Amino acid sequence: MNYAVVGGAVGLAVPNANIPGLKEFIASSRPSLTPGNTGLVELWETVFDCTLSPQSQKAVKSCTGDESLENANTRFTDVSDASLLNNIYKAVYAVAYAVDKHLGCHTGKKPFPNDTCADVGSIEPWQVLHYLTQVNFTTKNGETVLFDKLGDPIPRYAIVNWQRNDRGTIVFESIGMYDESRQDGEEFEINANGVVWAGQQHRVSKAEKMQ
Questions:
Q1: Contact between residue 175 and residue 161 where contact means Cβ atoms under 8 Å apart
Q2: DSSP class per residue in 24-67
Q3: In the Cβ-directed half-sphere of 149, how many Cα atoms lie within 13 Å?
Q4: Concatenated DSSP letters for 80-97?
Q5: Same domain for 6 and 51?
Q6: Number of folded domains that form the chain
Q7: From the centroid of its chain, how far is CA 82?
Q8: How far is CA 161 from CA 4, 6, 86, 171, 191, in A?
Q9: What range does the record give for the signal peptide (predicted)?
Q10: Per-residue DSSP letters for 169-198?
Q11: CA 42 from chain center: how many Å?
């Protein structure tokens, strides 16, 4: 691939995120503390190359129970870029806030036909959607979460610049942010000095500006 072609490009990406407490939660996780968590069992056996099943016929050692994920350097425990996990984190909180609003329906105006609340025992997805449109909260890492009247999340993207490093490979450098939850006129935040354009230039030439 001719990296000179893509070097200098600017695009949008899911922003990196830090979820407070996630690393510590993973480090303290143990199958013995959460019986029935098959996902954790599978992770444990994969990371430590052992088995937790006493009847296992596999030619691998048995797990001792003294293993720890704290110093396990694997892609399963690496939370340095929790951008995708952050979406799950926000989604769970958003639904929790929506359900909380649903449970408090009797204290305010009843939103459904005939001035009724949703049945706690059989709440429907469209009823959850109604309350999701009212959700507005800030995560522990300072990110505002809210939805429009259709239930779509407010756009928030990292602005990235495709830059060529000393080895000639492409790296994605964050040069700013687009966040529609900010006040009008403040949605874009760009570090113009951090942009490297085509040809390893730090400025856009007059000819390129005219185009």
A1: yes
A2: HHHHH--GGGSTT-HHHHHHHHHHHTEE--TT--SSSEEP-S--
A3: 0
A4: S--HHHHHHHHHHHHHHH
A5: no
A6: 3
A7: 5
A8: 13, 10, 22, 8, 11
A9: none
A10: -EEEEEEEEEETTSPTT-SEEE-GGG--BG
A11: 23
Contact yes or no for 89/20 (Cβ under 8 A): no
Contact 132, 148 (CB under 8 A): no
User: For 90, how many CA atoms within 13 A lie in the half-sphere containing its CB?
Assistant: 24
pLDDT band with cut points at 50, 70 and 90 for residue 108: low
End-of-domain residue from the set 78, 95, 114: 78
105 class by beta-carbon count within 10 Å (0-12 exposed, 13-18 middle, 19+ buried) = middle
Q: Could you give the count of Cα atoms lying within 13 Å of 181 in the half-sphere of its Cβ?
A: 18
Domain range for 2 is 1-17+149-210
Length of the chain: 211
> Which pTM value belongs to this model?
0.72
DSSP structural state of residue 105: G
Q: How confident is the model at residue 169 (pLDDT cuts 50, 70, 90)?
A: confident
Rg of the chain (C-alpha set): 24
Residue-level pLDDT at 145: 92
Given CA atoms 57, 60, 66, 71 in this order, what sign does their dihedral have?
A: negative
Structure-block tokens of residue 204: 């856009």
